[in-house]
């Protein structure tokens, strides 16, 4: 697996430090409203990030899962996202924080945010580990961002290629010849 990585973009130590920082930012925003907070991780990419993040949050919360698929098989170009597993929790009148691994084109998160907004939450915010600032649409605002990255194909810490590499502890740039 290590031989497939061209270079480490963000080390596990940098990730751990930033996740703690994001948790502090989130805790400050929801300090008075934490009891009603519902965390909505977008699976499967945010699984590891969300698990680490919520362990750093100092209050009770609910978790409501949602699975969206944008990449199919061996592709690095996202297709039209589709809901694979819909949210089963009622979020009406609750504070909702969507947690995802990466804000790239905005197709997946745009779909999720529009869908959840229709369910009338008290508030709706977004937390992403990575944002490709040059590609992310300005109309889709991430409230909490771990790292802004260049436009490269990354894997590790939950991010995958053909459902591999999610377990790599660092975020690395996949060697282009493996997916080109």
Concise summary:
The protein is an alpha/beta fold and 180 residues long.
Beta fraction of the residues? 25-35%
Please write the CATH class name.
Alpha Beta
Number of domains: 1
Q: Give the termini distance in whole angstroms.
A: 17 Å
| Class per helix and strand makeup | alpha/beta
Q: What count of helical segments does DSSP give?
A: 3
Nearest-angstrom radius of gyration? 16 Å
- Average pLDDT for all residues: 87
What is the β-strand count?
Answer: 10
Shape: globular
Largest sheet: 7 strands, mixed
The name CATH uses for the topology is Rossmann fold
The share of residues in helices is 10-25%
Tell me about this structure.
- The protein is an alpha/beta fold and 180 residues long.
- The protein contains three helices and ten strands, in the order βαβαββββαββββ.
- The protein has a single domain, classed as Rossmann fold (3-Layer(aba) Sandwich), CATH 3.40.50.
- Helix 2 links the parallel strand 2 (37-43) and strand 3.
- The longest helix has 18 residues, at 12-29.
